Amino acid sequence: MGPTAVRSLTFHTNRRRYGPYGDEYGTYFSTSFADGRVVGFHGREGWYIDGIGVHVQQGKVPRSLRAAASRSPSPAPRSDPDPSDVDEEVPYAA
């Protein structure tokens, strides 16, 4: 048995699915939340990514923050949705 490592990552929102990134192989894990937004990620690494976690701000996202998110420049325009869709997107990871 080899080292424990994150081999694949997929994100789901209420609008669409992003990924999978990597090879879908091994033990499946999923988590979700109803209200809130992803505000950060953390992880553990060695030779590989050994673990990954998500920081979530719970509660309804105020409309002013959703509108600001839709105007933010995208770090990866090829994989991001149309900015007009972002204000209604609710992310969760799988």
Automatic annotation (TrEMBL):
It comes from the Eukaryota. The keyword Protein biosynthesis does not apply. Keywords: Lectin. One of its GO terms (molecular function) is carbohydrate binding. Residues 63-73 have a biased composition (Low complexity). PROSITE patterns: JACALIN_LECTIN. InterPro entries: Jacalin-like_lectin_dom, Jacalin-like_lectin_dom_sf. Residues 63-94 are annotated as: Disordered. Signal peptide: none annotated. Residues 82-94 have a biased composition (Acidic residues). The keyword Transcription regulation does not apply. Residues 1-58 form the Jacalin-type lectin domain. PANTHER family: JACALIN-RELATED LECTIN 3, JACALIN-TYPE LECTIN DOMAIN-CONTAINING PROTEIN. This is Jacalin-type lectin domain-containing protein.
